[in-house]
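Per reviewer request, we include the raw input and output of the structure prediction for the construct analysed in the revised manuscript.
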Amino acid sequence: MDSTSSPSPSPSSSSPFDTVSSALGRYIPRRSGAAAATDSTDARPARPARPRVPPTPAPGPQEQILGAVNLDQDLKITGCNLDAPVFAGLDAVIGSPFVDLLPSGDVPTVTRRLRQVLDTGEPHVARVQRLRRADGSELVVSMSILAAAAPQEGLTVSLIAMARRLHLYAAETAIGTSLDIGETAQSLAESLLAWGDVAAVDLDFAVWTGEGVAERPQGRIRLRRAALVPDRVWPEGYATPGEDLPRDASRLLSQAIRRDDAAQALVIPDRAAIERVLGSPRLVRALVPSDRAAGVACIPLILDGTPPVVLGLAEIWRRADRPFGDGELLDLQELVARTSHHVDLARRHQREHTQVLALQRRLLPRTSGDTIETASVYQPATPDSAGVGGDWVNSFPLPDGRTALVVGDVVGHGLGAAATMGQLSMEARALLSAGLAPDEVLEHLDETVSLLDDAESGLAAGYSALGSTCCIAVYDPVSHRVALSSAGHLPPVLVPPDGPAGPVAVGPHPGLGAEFALREPFGVHAFAAPPGSLLALYTDGLVEDPAVSIDEGIGRLTDAVATVHPWDALQQAARHVVSELAPGRRRDDVTLLLARMIGYRKGDTATWRLPARDDAAARARTLVSALLRQWRTRDVTRDSVLLVVDELVANAVRFATGPLTVRLIRTGNGLLCEVGDTGTGRPRLGRGELLDDGGRGLHVVHRLTTRWGVRWTDTGKVVWAAVAR
C-alpha cells in the first residue's frame, strides 16, 4: 500500500470552510488548461513577486459562525460540522432527517427548496431561517443550499449564524412592515430571539389599546403581554400573549427600569437572583419561562420626547451558562431603540382604527320597521391595512311611512374618510326626512363632496373625497315599489318572491364630486318590490376579488342572497352571506345591508282620486268617515282625522290645480293621512295673528297630529299628517 495515499476525509472531519468551499467550486468558472499554458508563456515581462502576506488567523471559538451539513438524496444528514459554540444544542444526528432541525411551520417550504436544488442544481442562498435546538429554543441563521461537490452526491447546507449588525438591519426592516400592534410586537420578539432562548414583549396597557400615552402622568405601568416566542406549550400560570402580567410583576418591572427617571436596561444573571427580585413563587411562574436556571435582560421601549415615555419592555431569556456580554446588551438596546417608533406608530394606528370603528358602528341601522325588515353586517379591514375605510350603510323610516336604505363608500381610509362618511350620512338622512327624492339628495351630496375638496373649505389637507359613491333606495310600503338613485355605486341585488334574482339595472353614473364636464343629472330607477322581496345593498369590498371579474363577484353575491329562505332569520342570513364571500384578510371594509319587504296589507290602505272642486273636502270627509267606521276607530281619533283631511283637501283646492289624491293608511300606532296635488308651493306654518284670514288650517293640523310634512313628487307634492290612535 502506498504510504503517501490516505483515505479522503469524511464530511464530518472536514472543516465547515472546506466543505462549503468545495461545494461552491462547481459554481465558480475555471480557466482551461490551454488558457493557463498561454498565460504561462506570455512574453510580457514577469512582474516582481509580491511578498506573501501571512493568512489571517482563524477566528477563535467564540467568533466562529460558519457550520456545514451534508445531506443525501433522501435529505438525511450524512455528515456535519457544527462545532462552533453558537450551534450548541442543534441535535444534528447522522442518519436523521434534516427537517428535524426546523420549526414545524417551516418544514414544507424548506423541503421544497431542498428538492428544487437536488433536481435543478441551482443554489438557493442566504435564506433567513430558524433552527430548533434540543431544548426548544431557536437559532437564527443565514442558510444556503448547494449541490454537493463531486464525487459526492446530495446537498451541502451552509449555516451562518447571522452577524449582529446584519441582524439589526434585517430586524428593523421586518418590524416596520405592519401597522397592527400585535404583529409589530411579534416581529420584534422574533428578532430578539437571535440573542436568547425565549423572547417576550410586554406593552403598557394604554399602548396596547391605542390610548394616548405622551400626555399621561408617569404613574405605575400596567403591562400586557403582546408577544412571546418560540411558539410552544407553556407551563400553567405563565403569562402568554393577550394576558396581563400580575400587578406586582408590573410594579417591580416598572420600578426596575426606572420609569419615573431615565429608563435603563436591566440584567438579572441567574435563577437565584430572579427569585430574590420577584420574591413570590406565583410571580416566578408567571415570568420565568422554564424550571431550568435562566438569566434575563429587560430592555425598555422608549418613545423619545420631553420627558421620554416608556411604551413597555422586551424580555430576553437565556440559560445561565450563557451570560449577556456588554456588546450584546448594546446590540439589544440599539435594536429596541430603533424599533420603538414602529410600536408607537402601530399604537397610533390602533387608536385611529378604534375611533373610526366606533363611528362606523354608530351609523349602522338599529331596528327594523313594521313594513320592512333589515339586517346589516359591517366588517372593517384587517388591522394591518391602511385603516378603517369609509364604507357606511343606514336604513331608517321616513316620517311619511316610507323607508330609506342608503349605502356609500367614501374614498380613502382613516379619520379623514370617517369624518366625510359621517357628514354625508347625516346629510342624506336629513334631506330624505325633509321629503327630497333620492336623485335630489345625491345632487346635494355631490355639491358637498366638491366643497370638501376645496382648498380653503376642505375637510383636511391632503385628503380628497372625490370619486366617493352612494346608492339611495326609498321603499313605499303602500305601492310596494322602490325608487333608487346611484352615484357610481355597484347595483343592488333584488330577489323577488316569484322570479329570478339579479342585479338591479341601474344606469352608470360617475361618483360624487366628478368634474363638471362629466356631470350628468342623477336618474331615478323605480321597480316593483312585492311583499317577500329581498334587496341587498353592499360595498365593493364584498364582491371584489383579484382572481375574478367584478361581474362574477356580483354573480356570486346574487347566488348567495338567492339561497336565503323567506323564513330565515335575516341577521343570521346576512352573516352567512358575508362569511361565504368576504376574504379572510380584508384590504377594504365589507358592508352588506339586507332588506326584506313586508309592506301594508290591502285592507290597511285606501286611496281616492277627487277633482279639485269646492265640494272636494265634503266628499273626502264622507269617504274617510265610512272607512273609519269600518276600521272601528275611536270617536276621538275619527274626529281628529276628519278635521285634518278637511283642512288638507281645502288647502289643496285653494292653492293647487288638477286632480287630488287622498290616501289613508292604518299603521301600527296610528293613522297616516296623505293629500297629493299638482301644486309646487310649500305649505308653511305662520304665526297665526288674531286678525289673519289665512294659515289657520295648518295650525289646526299642527295641533291634532304628532307629525306632518311635505314630500315632492314628479307631478307635484304630497302633504302628509300622522294622527295617533
